[in-house]
Amino acid sequence: MTAQRWFGNCASLGAFMVPGLALWLPSGYSHGALLLLLAALASAPTWWRRPAPRAAWWLMAAFLCMAGLWMLDVGTAWGMGSMERPVKYLLALPCMFYLMTFRPRAAWLWTGIAVGAMGGGLVGLYQTGVLGLPRANGYTNAIQYGNLSLLLAVMSGLVLVVQWRRWVLLQRVLLAVAVALGVVGSVLSQSRGGWLALVLVLPVCAWLLVRTTGQRRIYWGLGALVFAAVALSQVPAVERRLDEARQELQIYQERGDGSSSVGQRLVHWRLAWEMGRDRPLIGWGRAGYIEEKERRVAAGQAHPSVLEYGHAHNEVLDLFAKRGLLGVLLLMVFYGVPLAIFWPTDARIRDGSGKVDNESLSLCLVGVLLPLSYIGFGLTQVFLAHNSGNMFYLFMCPLVLAALHERRARMGCPRPV
């Protein structure tokens, strides 16, 4: 086997492993990332000399911006552990340029997404049904686990719907099972923030499908999903969590109680907003955020429950308090660049005859889904405060981009712009 083919196989295997093992194993997303990093280092003399597409440079710039932002947290107060997050962002860069040279096949990515969604449901069923846990949490926390399980389920659903005619009956059944099990994993985690993110994600995906394919019946499918969501809300575990949220919101409004899950988020959001307004340009910094919280609690200006967590339970407000408008701007770049480079333009999804290529469209929609879902998850959780949130995004974005370029090159189309 030639080196070119061997490195290409490693890229495809990594495309399977990153989403495929994400919820099956402890730090499952890291196994594929490690394989890609080792392959990138071994093949550096090859990809180093090859020009990368413009989209890869834009993605690199977005990753570097966030790495620089996290570098501001490095200091004696946090020790060497403060380097962990920015180092991961920097290590993703050689993997990106490796993938743009040795591009993975999309089929490996589709298989990994489906297997990962199945893992979300099966691990959740084992933890709640066999181990007797009250909430499925996989090998991370319940919120991260449930949200990633739901994200993989939606990705599987997009792949199933967009490429429906391509799949044989068995493949359709397996993808449908992946969707169902991914949703099961989310339900068993009882993570309400993921369900809220669907309100943002599903209408946008449906609109993009109608816009690119012209098939308005997709709106009927969206309506069916809304009906299914309403029916799902009657499941005892889901209904109980929704009732709890309503009760906690009411108690907070009446008494200002910040000890509940909803109440704690509300007091965190209020405090983060106030702290951000006090230092709107550069924020308080990570250490300063915690010190100022302690001071305000001691002075009776904030509820004591805010001391339990080091973040504000909202991605934007957390960065606004810690890094001011600069941090919020860099976060928008981090999400906005993938949205721009994956947006399904004609140059990215149509073949030489002007006909929509469903695999290219699937890759664009999965790419758009990544930042959109993270924006939705970030409404009630600081997703990037966790290793799972960072690693999945850092490696899925380059994998989807490389697979899209591989598909376009195999079709004889110009590079996507």
From TrEMBL:
Principal location class: membrane
Top-level taxon of origin: Bacteria
Residues spanning the membrane: 31-48, 55-80, 109-130, 142-162, 169-188, 194-210, 217-237, 324-343, 363-384
Subcellular location: Membrane
Keyword Membrane in record: yes
Keyword Translocase: no
Stretches assigned to the O-antigen ligase-related domain: 178-331
The name this protein goes by in its record: Polymerase
Pfam families noted in UniProt: Wzy_C (PF04932)
GO CC term, one of those recorded: membrane
Membrane topology: Multi-pass membrane protein
Record key words, sorted: Membrane, Transmembrane, Transmembrane helix
